[in-house]
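Students often ask what a 'structure token' actually looks like in practice. Rather than answer in the abstract, let us consider DUF541 domain-containing protein, a protein of 221 residues. Its sequence is given first.
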Amino acid sequence: MEISRMTVKGKGFASAPPDTIAISLQLEDIKDTYELAMQHAALALEQVRETLLPLGFPKKEIRSTHFSVDSAYEHRNDFRGENKRYFLGYRYRNDLKITFGNDSKRLGEILLALSLCEADPEFSVYFFLKDRHAVEHALLEDAVRDAKDKAQILAAAGGVMIGKILSIDYDWGEIEVRSRVYAASSKMAYDSAPMIDLEPEDISNSDTVTVVWEILNPQKT
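Now compare that with the structural description of the same chain:
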């Protein structure tokens, strides 16, 4: 006997205050030779380490997420007006990351220190949830409840009843639980140091599930 089905999509919402801060740092410059680029990259990294060490970040807690040294070029017109590619030198890039508990006072101290760092880093600040499971669970529970409410409304309007759940489909994509609230160069941070007291909003997200219900007493046509 064929089972009558009802398919409903439910959308869930959840939010929570962030508990962790991450600062992404970018060190980048162009030098005439590969050797100079490597030397300057090492010097800039050491300057960042010296800046962050008094603030509670030993070497092992300043993680490098990307490092590269590549030939750098630019396109510009020559004296004949012809567009040509010119070699500029060697560009190094070192992306670093530090994380710590959500503390706006400490954040302000760190950003102010970075603004005075001789390495002149670019940086972005992210607030996120270190443990995402609680938010993920609440979000999915809310999505299933929403699907059930919709199914009951549709069933009542159609003069039928819903039975057991036949399937629940969820794409299991990664739920985003971070937000970027600040991005600047060290010079900009220095100019705006008195305004660095950042209080982020709760991190909110949504997701959907598709639930298939059995219809117990389908109307005969």
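One point worth highlighting: The CA atoms of residues 30 and 91 lie 4 Å apart. Ask yourself how you might have guessed this from the sequence alone, and why that guess would often be unreliable.
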